[in-house]
Amino acid sequence: xxxxxxxxxxxxxxxxxxxxxxxxxxxxxxxxxxxxxxxxxxxxxxxxxxxxxxxxxxxxxxxxxxxxxxxxxxxxxxxxxxxxxxxxxxxxxxxxxxxxxxxxxxxxxxxxxxxxxxxxxxxxxxxxxxxxxxxxxxxxxxxxxxxxxxxxxxxxxxxxxxxxxxxxxxxxxxxxxxxxxxxxxxxxxxxxxxxxxxxxxxxxxxxxxxxxxxxxxxxxxxxxxxxxxxxxxxxxxxxxxxxxxxxxxxxxxxxxxxxxxxxxxxxxxxxxxxxxxxxxxxxxxxxxxxxxxxxxxxxxxxxxxxxxxxxxxxxxxxxxxxxxxxxxxxxxxxxxxxxxxxxxxxxxxxxxxxxxxxxxxxxxxxxxxxxxxxxxxxxxxxxxxxxxxxxxxxxxxxxxxxxxxxxxxxxxxxxxxxxxxxxxxxxxxxxxxxxxxxxxxxxxxxxxxxxxxxxxxxxxxxxxxxxxxxxxxxxxxxxxxxxxxxxxxxxxxxxxxxxxxxxxxxxxxxxxxxxxxxxxxxxxxxxxxxxxxxxxxxxxxxxxxxxxxxxxxxxxxxxxxxxxxxxxxxxxxxxxxxxxxxxxxxxxxxxxxxxxxxxxxxxxxxxxxxxxxxxxxxxxxxxxxxxxxxxxxxxxxxxxxxxxxxxxxxxxxxxxxxxxxxxxxxxxxxxxxxxxxxxxxxxxxxxxxxxxxxxxxxxxxxxxxxxxxxxxxxxxxxxxxxxxxxxxxxxxxxxxxxxxxxxxxxxxxxxxxxxxxxxxxxxxxxxxxxxxxxxxxxxxxxxxxxxxxxxxxxxxxxxx
Length: 800
Fold this sequence. Notes:
By secondary structure, the chain is mostly beta strands. It has eight helices and 45 strands. α3 packs parallel to α4 (about 435-450). The chain is globular and about 90 Å long.
């Protein structure tokens, strides 16, 4: 059990989604994403092998039908859908998937296990017409031993029915098999699925003690005496630690084998240096390797001290955090590995060092990216418990399923160095009652019984002493929008650290200054760091949400928008978090960006002020405009066309945001920042001329020929000098040839109902996005981008 007054946690983390070959045989883990058949709508006997599926649509996973165009339209949006404003006006429904696959006669005798990383939601799975399970929660990773149902040397059928017919979520969920599917094949003596647990009870710069627990399963039908051999490899594939142990395991039983290894002079995992190791686990019987797995992990220690704060590898660290939902904007819920990795990269580049998975377990690929890139994670299980937001949401079966789904999250994710806290819930209804306090205690104790190396937390809204019984069940308290309760809450619970599990962008300065002020306040997680579909327009129209908000489909409250472009609030946050001096210019437009909501509630403040990075305002000559400079410098000076408009002092009242009124005319705004009277930084904002060219930029110009790798192509409409014209809204078309395809297009307009699937998209504020996906053949992907009246733009992406 974890001691709440002084928690020292040292962990090595691992995840094995990489194929590992057994000696002389086919891969242990096989990706089952290719060659599925799909039918939208219910089908009688859809699970039966005798059903004729020859006319079903062929596709590869991940797949989300909700992001696709509604048949007969050029849009995935519909103002009348039952999911409505919560889902961003997208539809659910029923969908069927069928996968035909072959198992060779030579593999008879092996054990086969199918794993789904995520299916939204309420799915039923059949193998060769036999029902193997129902999975209600749309975010859990789950799997089944399908050995008893298979045929060898013949066609096998994996059928999945997905039911997402009604309102089940407060945000966009997507629909379908939106994460990977895997097939694991092992000999009858094998390492259990998620059966390797790695921790480090001792960590220093000189030595790390690595504790490995390996669960073996013996389905051979007789007692065996295998050897479990472990090797730790560094990034150069050199062995830096090893151990082996003989054991005895009777038939039909599980056995846990515990070993310790020593790594000298370890490279510690941190947010700045995310070093990873590989654990190779081998099961040897009769001199032969009968099973082998590889796990990547990181060596690091974490400490939660109720007085001094959070420490990573012995160094104090404040959490610069963002809350994220699981969708990937124009890709919907599809969890391509590269989409998840890019999301993490964008956060890292914007100054974040931590993410809260709001409000459900993320994809394994996203956690892998956090491990590689150095982002800390609060892994969260549920948005609802016993009392839900909708009749058909998870609350319907919470009491039946919570132990299973909570355990699934923990055993899947406990080997990730990035994960530092387990969150058991968010804004749980009736959490000021004895009933919910008792239920929270049960969830927290169950979490610690599976993994006591991390603290248990939750996001708690409307914090007050009425919720003390509930808060007392947690190791670390997450406060949603409750900064006024920090001091009083800490006084009532001095044994408990606090962090802002959700905060408002418009109050970023005050939130962060509190984090800097109090050691026991360990971080701030903005709602949200990455914009998302659903909760349509909370960042503009606000609450209460209404169907009349259509066609607003985005929340429009992210630091980073759905195309991956940083919004002004992100640059403001940089003035609070970065050690580098900077200035950023934003303008209050003379006409609101969108119509206003006269009935917006006063407490609904997820919006950032209506400010844009533009000095193009046709028809506004001579009109005074509010010009803002974001900076942490002591002073800033604004110039227009080289003429100083005066200096402003950055006081505590100014809060890193200095303002000028400037009569509009075309030209150049320049902001200079000063520290101790010396100029340390400058930035400019120019009036862009007429669009003369199209500029295309790829985030990656070389892809893997795996059929799933992505390149994000940013399209900018620029003038002759290369400045993006923020008024440009040309219709942009895309032509693709070669070893890849166009899988999505988008712009950042939160009210655009255009298709994400077509080969065209209008620009918004001079920009739009195209996403290319590789095929499985080496070569090149050629993209031509066109807009009427402009020279074509070309880019080539390699595939190898």
